[in-house]
Design goal:
heterodimer; A: 542 residues; mainly alpha; two-stranded antiparallel ribbon; 6 strands; globular; B: 449 residues; alpha/beta; seven-stranded mixed β-sheet; two-stranded antiparallel sheet
Chain lengths: 542, 449
């Protein structure tokens, strides 16, 4: 009851607002409730939001007769949240400290700690960069433009810059002579323009996909049969990016904004004026058709797409699947599986000034995030919608960082700058990343034969598990206070972030007992460690 | 094949039903080929793609224009196909033209290297979120088998930077990613020690300090760990991991990996192919097809003396093309005779193409620029009625005057020759199924046997 009243009030606010704001009809209206109007009245802390989401999900499960999976144990939760928020597995020390902590609120405290670490900014910078520049991931030449872009993201995220301001900064990035070929890109979002060749149609398609959660590029060439966007809709959005197109191939400065307004739909001779997506009326003549004007609309708390798209993406990042799937494909025929959950998330996100950490806190506090991994419940083998956590593959960056943490691998030739460093161009890390780079969704993550061979036989893992160069292995074997069972436990904590079961310990001790000399025993430990790192348990986010 | 996560959603199924989508093979083709395959189950079909990076000049290779100034410096020569002439620097190949069909009426609209590469390799322009797979991955999925020792899609000496996505598996997933060998082969002529190592599969062998016995012990421990973990994670990424490791270890342990070692081939044959990466790559392609790999591609890009992208002859076209032909001619001609000698030609389709052709008008630098409006590809071998030319361009080479061929037409033709139904659908990464080739494609039935 209250919700319907709220919607009416917010629609009235929208209708009374200046012409820049939008009018809707039908499905779009319901899913696109303007979030800002309720924000002041109904802001809640992240744990209260988590509670509300859990209640709604529980109601949906009950209605569908679904029994949700039980809560994940400490080990699964620990590994999952470290990989999701820090981009790497926990160290042995971090794992032991967490397991031994008796406090009932330790999960919440851990999340708070992880959100405040530099690794959060680094990991999310990589995640956003992969989202914004998907084609650059696999291309060695493109890595030059990727680096300053990712550094820019990392700086903004470390400052906890509101997400809408980050989007606006990207959309209004200054473009000029520094984009000329051969010049180094400054730290900033310029790469987005480089990879899209500064073409208005490419920029519009990708900006819409990423920030609005709407795929319009199919309408680039023809009215799409399944979706509601027309060619006019697409090109009207592209019109805002006309100023980004270079004046000439060798003159990279921007077009002056005062140049002819609107854009011609190729091959038709028809010009369309700039118009926001979903808006029936074009941009008023008094407003310049600039990226700045578009950015203001995108980043506005009243934009019906932005908060929802961001909330959906973050949900998908943490839960494996979005409330709208595919995450960038909202349309009349493809709405959210739990519309009220998404609306609530979007509303609170906008109300909290698009604070990513707020939303992370809320989502990771839900029961949905904290339940057991798929297949872990006997009798079930598939992830049900948010009643069970789907297993996800690690990204290349996560695999590398986790390998470093697990094995104490030394990286970087000017001393160990840590596993997340971006500055070395030809480092072992870069070579590894290009071998393992994969932009597939994490729930559909696949391993290739070459990747398997690299991990099994390549020098990186060989060194990491060698008795002379592998730091963790060496330390474990040398520590005087361990017996063999203790050593095994240490290796399990290092690779799997959990303690071994009785049966696992017994089986592996039996192997060790076959060794006839100390050096043979050490070799068996190395073999066990190697096998653990090559196993699927290491590669999967539980 | 499909794991549980890739089922069509109900939404998609309804959408397909509403659109009246029915998958039907056009002319009884598929049934006929399937019958044949059933009769000879061991004779699997294969495709060898010779990829000419940079956009090869058609007027100087397969569509000579002797009566026009655009024809340039090269003269045409007669071939073993009556009435079909090709340019003079492909003399050995001229003898093989009875097996091949030059398709002279290719017409596409994409003149940008990256986009055109993606278009020709996948049949689609790179747009938005859909990760279209290249032909190699599509064929690997249809004709390969998870129990094979060798991967089903092998790419020899590719030049990927123009369009890295066109060398991946696209939405079909890592299982169908190409095994890439010889990527940094460049223009090093293959002699002596270098020859043996150029096509080595990277990291195929454990470090030399590891004995075979020790490797087996490690793998046994790994198997033990996986056995326990499978109960907890039977599907999804963990399953893919296990499959990849299974195939990788089979490759490590099998004799099949010896395919990559060319040293057991007769020296004379190796010389006939040409002691360079492309020539030896073609030999490797024959060996892989012989061992059941359904799709192998060999790239001719950089050769000694040419700068940049081999066939991208904006400058000094004739000298460059001649050098390229000196590599291409013996390699391809030997490949044809070698396939025939091994009884493989009837079941192997050979395709020659680049991302576009080159301008008939010669520019001020004696070069030719990008030209997608009217250009040539060549197709032949198994399933193709060789010895004829398909399509015609105008006397000046500027336009197609007969039987224009789009990229989808060509890819559909290749599929049919391989016994693959091009209208078959695969689950994509955007939630809707996508056919192997666009249903509007018009296969070139005139040249299919």
């Amino acid at each position: 009851m209250r919700r319907i009243g709220t919607a009416t009030r917010s629609t009235a606010v929208v209708a009374a607002a200046p012409a820049l704001l939008l009018l809707f009809s039908g499905n779009l209206a319901r899913a696109g409730d303007a979030p800002a109007a309720t924000a002041a009245r109904d802001l809640v802390d992240p744990w209260e939001l988590a509670e509300r989401i859990d209640q709604r999900l529980a109601a949906a499960w009950k209605a569908a007769g679904i029994q949700p999976a039980p809560l994940a144990d400490d080990a699964e939760f620990l590994r999952r949240v470290y990989l999701d928020l820090s981009g790497r597995i926990p160290s042995v020390g971090e794992a032991r400290a967490f397991f031994d902590d008796p406090s009932p609120s330790k999960r919440r405290a851990l999340i708070d700690r992880l959100l405040n670490r530099a690794s959060f900014a680094a990991h999310f910078a990589t995640t956003l960069r992969t989202l914004l520049l998907p084609t650059a991931t696999n291309d060695p030449q493109m890595r030059q433009v990727v680096r300053p872009f990712e550094i820019w993201l990392r700086l903004r995220l470390a400052d906890n810059t509101p997400y809408n301001r980050l989007a606006a900064e990207l959309l209004t990035a200054p473009l000029g002579s520094e984009m000329a070929a051969g010049r180094r890109m400054p730290i900033g979002p310029g790469a987005f323009y480089a990879v899209n060749e500064r073409k208005p149609e490419n920029l519009a398609a990708n900006a819409s996909r990423v920030f609005l959660g709407v795929q319009v590029q199919c309408a680039q060439c023809h009215d799409h049969p399944f979706r509601e966007w027309s060619r006019g809709d697409f090109w009207s959005l592209a019109a805002f990016f006309v100023e980004a197109a270079p004046l000439a191939p060798d003159r990279p400065a921007m077009m002056p904004v005062a140049a002819r307004r609107g854009i011609e739909i190729p091959g038709t001779g028809k010009r369309v004026p700039p118009r926001f997506l979903g808006s029936p009326a074009p941009l008023p003549e008094s407003e310049p058709a600039s990226r700045a004007v578009l950015a203001r609309w995108v980043a506005s708390p009243d934009n019906p797409y932005f908060a929802r798209a961001a909330a959906n993406r973050l949900w998908a990042h943490l839960l494996g699947y979005g409330l709208i799937e595919p995450v960038d494909d909202f349309s009349a025929g493809n709405g959210p599986s739990h519309p009220e959950v998404l609306s609530e998330l979007a509303r609170q996100f906008a109300g909290h000034k698009f604070d990513l950490k707020y939303l992370c806190r809320a989502i990771t506090a839900t029961r949905a995030y904290q339940c057991k991994s798929a297949g872990a419940v006997p009798g079930t083998t598939e992830a049900r919608p948010f009643a069970q956590m789907p297993a996800r593959g690690m990204t290349a960056e996560q695999i590398f960082a986790s390998l470093v943490v697990a094995t104490g691998l030394e990286v970087g030739d000017q001393g160990n700058r840590g596993p997340m460093d971006l500055l070395d161009a030809d480092s072992p890390r870069e070579k590894f990343l290009s071998r393992f780079a994969d932009t597939a969704p994490r729930t559909a993550s696949q391993t290739s034969i070459l990747q398997a061979l690299t991990f099994m036989n390549g020098t990186l893992v060989a060194e990491a598990t060698s008795l002379t160069k592998g730091a963790t292995l060496r330390a474990t074997l040398d520590a005087p206070f361990f017996d063999d069972a203790g050593r095994l436990e240490s290796l399990f904590l290092a690779a799997y972030s959990r303690r071994p079961s009785q049966a696992e310990t017994a089986a592996l001790l039996a192997l060790l007992q076959k060794a006839k000399s100390r050096s043979e025993r050490e070799a068996v430990f190395a073999d066990i460690f190697w096998a653990m790192l090559n196993s699927s348990e290491f590669a999967v986010v539980p | 094949m499909f794991d549980s996560d890739s089922r069509l959603s109900r939404r998609d199924a309804l959408r397909l039903a509403a659109a009246g989508v029915v998958s039907v093979s056009s002319s009884g083709w598929i049934e006929a080929l399937a019958d044949e395959a059933a009769a000879h189950p061991a004779r699997r079909r294969a495709c060898i793609l010779l990829w000419m990076n940079g956009g090869p000049s058609q007027l100087d290779t397969f569509d000579p224009k002797p009566g026009h100034k655009n024809g340039g410096a090269f003269r045409p020569i007669a071939t073993a196909a009556p009435g079909v002439q090709i340019a003079e620097h492909l003399p050995k190949l001229a003898q093989q033209m009875k097996h091949l069909v030059p398709v002279r009426s290719m017409s596409t609209k994409e003149g940008d290297h990256g986009r055109a590469t993606f278009l020709m390799r996948t049949g689609n322009l790179p747009q938005g979120a859909i990760r279209y797979p290249p032909l190699g991955a599509l064929v690997a999925k249809e004709l390969g088998s998870a129990s094979d020792e060798l991967p089903s899609f092998v790419s020899i000496a590719p030049f990927r930077p123009l369009s890295p996505e066109a060398y991946g598996p696209g939405f079909l997933g890592s299982q169908f990613a190409p095994l890439i060998v010889g990527e940094s082969a460049g223009s090093v002529p293959m002699t002596g020690q270098a020859a043996a190592t150029t096509f080595k599969v990277e990291d195929l062998e454990p470090p030399s300090s590891m004995s075979a016995a020790r490797t087996n012990e490690r793998l046994a421990i790994l198997a033990q760990l996986e056995q326990r973990y499978t109960a907890r994670q039977p599907t999804g990424p963990a399953l893919s991991h296990r499959i990849a490791y299974d195939r990788a270890t089979r490759l490590m342990r099998s004799q099949a990996a010896k395919a990559f070692d060319l040293s057991d081939e007769p020296t004379k044959l190796r010389e006939q192919y040409g002691k360079n990466p492309f020539g030896q790559g073609c030999l490797l392609a024959r060996r892989l097809v012989e061992r059941g790999v359904p799709f192998v591609e060999v790239t001719l890009s950089n050769i000694a003396g040419n700068q940049g992208l081999g066939w991208d002859t904006h400058i000094d076209n004739f000298a460059s093309v001649r050098r390229l032909c000196e590599v291409l001619d013996p390699a391809w001609a030997t490949l044809m005779t070698d396939l025939k000698a091994h009884g493989l030609l009837d079941t192997t389709i050979v395709v020659w193409m680049g991302e576009f052709g080159r301008t008939p008008k010669i520019n001020d630098n004696g070069g030719r620029d990008h030209f997608p409006q009217a250009w040539s590809t060549v197709i032949g071998g198994g399933g193709i009625h060789g010895g004829q030319a398909l399509g015609k361009t105008s006397a000046d080479g500027m336009t197609v005057v007969e039987r224009p061929v789009a990229v989808t037409d060509l890819l559909a033709t290749i599929c049919l020759a391989l016994g693959i139904d091009p209208s078959k659908q695969n689950d994509s990464n955007v939630g809707r199924p996508i056919r192997i080739v666009d249903p509007k494609a018009r296969p070139i039935h005139e040249i299919l046997t």
